[in-house]
Amino acid sequence: MIQKHFDLHRVRLDRNNGLPVGVKPGMNSLPSIFIKTFAAFRWLLLLAAALFPAASRAQAPPTPEAVAFFEKSIRPVLAEKCYSCHGEKAQFAGLRLDSRAGLLKGGDRGSALDLAAPDKSRLLSVLRYADAVKMPPSGKLPDATVAEFAAWAKMGAPWPAGASGTPHPKTMTERVTEARGHLWSLQPVRQPAMPAVKNAAWVKTPIDRLVLAKLEAKGIKPARPAGRIALLRRATYDLIGLPPTPDEIAAFVADKSPNAFEKVVDRLLASPHYGERWGRHWLDLARYSDTLGYLVGNVGDVGRIYPYAYTYRDYVVRAFNSDKPYDQLLKEQLAADLLN
Fold first, then answer.
1. What's the pLDDT at 138?
2. By three-state DSSP, how is residue 240 classified?
3. Are 93 and 161 in contact (CB under 8 A)?
4. Which pTM does this prediction carry?
5. 153 contacts: CB under 8 Å, gap ≥ 6
6. pLDDT score of 6
7. What is the helix, strand, coil percentage profile of the chain, to 5?
8. pLDDT tens digits, residue range 208-264?
9. DSSP per-residue string spanning 15-56
10. Between vectors from CA 165 to CA 176 and to CA 161, what angle results, nearest 5°?
11. How far apart are CA 131 and CA 48, in angstroms?
12. Residue 79, helix vs strand vs coil
């Protein structure tokens, strides 16, 4: 329609030497000059409307619900899967996906979004793996995610004004709330249902039943029970990092009580070596060191030594030996001498 209107005016102007109908050549009065100017200005407006239809695709201010949907379901996926190849630093195929304007402009193959026919947008075709080009190349997105992109396109592809391509960093509360949905350590403690097993006689503890159920599901039989000396060595090395003494071996072999092994475990957990054995893993995570090991020089140089580092090491060992609650251990790690 715009093109026809433009062509009609162009023909009428050409027939009168570029002047509106009714204005004769050579009329240089002020009214005639105004008319000429108006005619030229109208011609430019029509030309702009014909050449730049994208202006009609300007985005109305998105609703808060549309912004929330974009920030939750669309932008994180674009940031994770698309920006590395179609963002600020790289634009494969001339395409940028870190702005609404970039999506509408498109790349070498044209616009990525078709607001007139959203479901036919090239963006959705490549996400659905229905195009010769399939994105992301690492693997098709879940159908639910593709459906969210389709819904977003039908909404008019709302994009918060002035928003950059990088997602807003989530608050700690938001991250914890999301993690509660899938992180096992944040799930409420509950008693799981015990699975049924065929070889119930093998089960000695509830954990045995869980292990056996997985073994039977794969057609695997449990290994035969370890001998008493082998069992004692395994438990002792595991809990205190040292071999059992001859006296400890003799005492365990001679103990015929049904809870003989439980007594061994209790003894090892009560050993001061238990904290030394398992506290070292915490110290490794904390990057504990007695010295500034990265400084080259004399081993005895006092400038390389943390003189009171051992106090933290001993604190960790005591914490494991006293079975300090984990939350209290964290508080003490963070607050240290600020605690009363």
1. 87
2. helix
3. no
4. 0.47
5. 113, 115, 118, 119, 121, 123, 124
6. 38
7. 55, 0, 40
8. 999 999 999 999 999 998 999 999 999 999 999 999 999 999 999 999 999 999 999
9. HTTTSPTT--TT--SHHHHHHHHHHHHHHHHHHHHHH-GGGG
10. 100
11. 34
12. helix
Question: Are the beta carbons of 50 and 6 closer than 8 angstroms?
Answer: yes
Residue 273 burial (CB count, 10 A) = 15
Q: Tell me what pLDDT residue 89 has.
A: 84
Give me the residue label for tokens 């590395």: 84
The alpha carbon of residue 124 and the mean position of all alpha carbons in its chain are separated, in whole angstroms, by 22
Which residue's entry shows tokens 């292990």?
A: 211
φ, ψ of residue 82 to 5 degrees: the values are -120, -35
Q: Give the single-character DSSP code of 117.
A: S
Reading the block at residue 223, the tokens are 């290994």
Contact present, 126 and 117 (Cβ < 8 Å): no
Quick one: pLDDT at residue 189? Answer: 86
Helix (H, G, I), strand (E, B) or coil at 258: coil
Instruction: Tokens for 268, please give them.
Output: 């090892």
Q: Which residues of the chain have pLDDT under 50?
A: 1-41, 43-56
Tokens describing residue 43: 């011609």
The per-residue pLDDT for 23 is 46
- Compute φ and ψ for 11, nearest 5 degrees: -65, -45
Q: Which of 32, 48, 66 is nearest to 161 (CA)?
A: 66
